[in-house]
Amino acid sequence: MKRNAVAWAALVVSSAALVSSSGLVRTMPAAPRVSAESQKAAHALSEAFGAVAEFAKPSVVQISVQRKAGMSRRSTPGRPSPFPFGGPGGRGNIDPKEFEDMLKKFFEQGGGHPEKEQFGERAEGTGSGFVYDEHGHILTNNHVVEGAGKITVTFYDGVEASAKVVGTDPDSDVAVIKVENTSYRPLPCGSSSKAKVGELVMAFGSPFGFEQTVTQGIISATERNDVHINSYESFIQTDAPINPGNSGGPLVNMDGQVIGINSAIVTGNRGMGSGGNDGVGFAVPIDMAKNVADKLIKDGKVSRARVGIVLNPLTPAFAKQFGLDPKTKGVVVGEVLPGSPADKAGLKSGDIITEFNGGAVTSMPAFRLNVSASDAGKSYKLTYFREGKEHSTNITPAPAENVVFDVERKGETERPAEKKAEPTKVEVKDFGLEVQALTPELATSLGMKKDLQGILVSSVKEGSEAEAAGLTEGMAITKVIKDKKVVTIKSVKDFQALTANADELAIYVESGKGPGQFVTLSKAKKE
């Protein structure tokens, strides 16, 4: 036995020597090899995060909601909604089997969509919010409190208080609730318009019901208006982790100021662990949220303004048609509603709007958002180009309910008249379409105005430039840009004359299914 013990000891010693001689055993450093300056910077950043967290903490709340009988979370049209995301997601409130079934349903439908919906049929859940003012108003998301029967707010120190809904705005996903306890400090609001890509931010909230959770990241993008989950949106995108239960919580900059309200995330379809944060989160910019919140507090509702314009995007090709720099930013006026603020301001189809109220117009959603947030009855300066020349005018937006296009009115479209013999069809080979005269009977049968002037697209060649531009049978071509001017098409002969020697056309097309738009067609290249 002793001999065996000695043998084993010798084996261990020899093995250790062999490993040591082969360089496999390294001496571990006593501390990370980081320069004093680097350590100082790291500690300073860590202290900054801690200071912001400590400052914001007393103003951040958890919102628990019990919904009214029969009320369930409404789904965003066209998007799967059973999977939790950025809003009520309190732990311990859902049966594991129910959770597993919803996971299965979500993955069968496919992931990767931006969502603001929560556990679809749940009667209760948790979200987040923050103290907005000294009167007990708390700012959160509409989808957190939508359909709420009972709302309980839990403050950072554990104090609970009942809250009531002051007002909600589904179009921007902003809501204001109120508690009677006003001893908690409001969280100061910054300016989301000054937010920069790459800026450090911190997200506060109650993900999965874990109250007073803080995550950190950067601003990934600003003015995201193509997420398509709200009617009015200009999201701040961030990679700060946002999970179910974070909805309504503040997105805070390093000055301790709110610059956004955490609202949505994009979840991927990577397996049963998916459904949480994938590094793409969205926050309602505080500038928009404040505008909405102040109106909700004052009037209990949000009134928006309109000017009566059908907008089209300004493409480089379209800018060239008007003799402008292809890099010009703005929006194109497609149609002007008669008697509307735009009509009174002298705007016409084909005008290119580049500035509104002193600010540059960068996109259709941004312009629509700025106009909607403006004060009805107040005059604003507007800059536009017409026939290559810059002009300015004053425009006075009106209440949205007073500015409505015919196509938006239901049940007012004339019924189809008795069909008559169809006019002769003419092929326009160079652009891949076939056209014919637009008669009053054809116009009404397609849901268009009876007296609409133009020609009808009777067919579109498969794989043609016209098809690529989105033209389809049943559309009407009513205008063409010629020599930097908008020319109304009255007959097929007019259209043929304009297309005879043109390599590129900017035309205005309309249908009975929605507003018209300008599109650009290029002549097909010969083989």
Short account of what is shown:
It is built from eleven helices and 28 strands. The chain has 527 residues and is an alpha+beta fold.
Beta strand %: 25-35%
Low-pLDDT sequence parts? 72-100, 102-111, 117-122, 269-274, 411-422
Count of the separate structural domains: 3
By CATH reckoning, the class of the largest domain would read Mainly Beta
Largest β sheet strand count, sense and barrel closure: 7 strands, antiparallel
Question: Could you name the CATH topology of the largest domain?
Answer: Thrombin, subunit H
Rg computed from alpha carbons, rounded to a whole number of angstroms: 30 Å
Shape: elongated
Q: Kindly report how far apart the N and C termini lie.
A: 94 Å
Q: Explain this structure to me?
A:
- With 527 residues, the protein is an alpha+beta fold.
- The chain has helices at residues 2-21, 36-56, 96-109, 142-145, 286-299, 316-321, 341-344, 364-373, 440-445, 465-468, 492-499, and strands at residues 60-67, 114-115, 124-131, 137-140, 148-154, 160-169, 174-178, 200-205, 213-224, 235-238, 250-253, 258-266, 281-285, 305-306, 309-313, 331-336, 352-356, 359-360, 380-386, 389-395, 398-399, 426-428, 433-437, 455-460, 476-482, 485-488, 504-511, 514-522.
- The protein folds into 3 domains: 54-299, Thrombin, subunit H (Beta Barrel); 305-404, Roll (Pdz3 Domain); 426-522, PDZ domain (Pdz3 Domain, Roll).
- It is built from 11 helices and 28 strands.
- The strands form 5 sheets. Strands 22, 23, 24, 25, 26, 27 and 28 form a 7-stranded antiparallel β-sheet that branches.
- The longest helix is centred in the N-terminal third of the chain and has 21 residues, at 36-56.
- Residues 72-100, 102-111, 117-122, 269-274 and 411-422 have low confidence and may be disordered.
